[in-house]
Amino acid sequence: MLRNQNGISVYTVLSIILFIALVFILAVPNFFNLDKEKNLEDCINNMKQIWVATTDYMRDTNADFNGDLSLLIKTPKKDDPKNTYLSSNLYCPETSHQKKEYLVYGKYIAEQIGTEIKHNYGIIILCPNLAQYPKHIIEKGFYENMEPTQLQNYMSEDIDYIDSETGLNGAKKVELINKYIEIWKTDPDAFAKRKANTTALRAILFPEKFGITE
Hints:
This protein is mostly helical and about 210 residues long. The protein contains eight helices and two strands; from the N terminus they run αααββααααα. Helices cover about 50% and strands about 10% of the residues.
């Protein structure tokens, strides 16, 4: 049997090297988050948790949400003071070590219908890595099962349209969703326009598709 000067066989050395290589191969996917399908599922689940927490918070405050997730983490629930709206910080698993927060925008609109006031809450959540991972977006079907308000339906339908039109172009998707959010932030008549015309806000984002020229 071949041995080196210290009396260790070559086969023993090779066995150790192979063992270390095997451990490395098994550990790398977990360390670097290489399981893309699991990362996608986990990221979407994170955004769903944030959506539920933000919705609960807005229903209790009847006000816009400015995107500060720490507020959801430290604020006790109105009907359950022992717990907060969000239990901990959540990050996209693709870059969890960088701790980049999800972008959250919440719009509140009180709609007067006769003598009644209808409370509308609409929430948009963006993965911080959407430009690189364009599938990291909440599917429209999720909202349909959550008893959404009319405003949330408008937003989820428009975001779904943006998603379908941009496909795998993540950078364009991010650009248009941010532009869409800006419409809701700056146009006080956005709700009325969207209510009157399904394509009103989409036409601002895709003027060429709706025959609009400057």
